[in-house]
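Possible regression after last week's pipeline update?

I re-ran a chain I had predicted before the update to compare outputs. Posting the input and the new output here so someone can diff against the archived version. Not blocking, just want to make sure nothing changed silently.
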Amino acid sequence: MRKGHSGWSLLEMVIALTIFGIVMAAIFGVLIPTLRAFAKNQIRHELYMQTEQALNGLNQKVSDSFGWLEGDSARMLLVSRNGDTISIYRDVKDSVLYVNRRPALPAGYKTAEFGISYKPMCDSAMSLSSGQWFIIADSDQDGLIKGEEITKVVSLELKMTVSKARENYTGSTFPRIPPAIMDIEIGE
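New output (post-update):
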């Protein structure tokens, strides 16, 4: 700046704006990835909380039920202590896990995967996959674990993967196995 003149010269303004632009680019270069990581972690935390809440609810429903009617690798049918039927299943069309036709998760969350593993009472179970466990437990090979077959299951795992905004979280629970209810015909 020249003596006696107020204001900035064009060269001084260009230099000041260039320095300001470099500083702002550095700030935003750090700030934007940090904000994205924060938002991603927020979604992951929500997924964790919703998945664990749903699994705790499923664990309680299964563990506290009066008895177990039947199940396969994707659904279960139980009887509650008050005599009502409890149906747990995942609808493949809308990717929602239902408990008695009510979504187990809030709107916006999808159940990407849901599976039930039945560990049978046999010496070789530890060396087998969960798919092989089901084949062994389903002794009549009708695709359902029911009746006397239920009494041969020693461990039950409910596993689900929940997704939202292209993020996933997988969790599982091992509920107490309810007693088998045998010799009952289930109407449609």
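Follow-up from reviewer: compared with the archived run. The beta strands are 67-71, 75-79, 85-91, 96-99, 102-103, 110-120, 145-146, 153-164, 167-173. Marking as no regression found.
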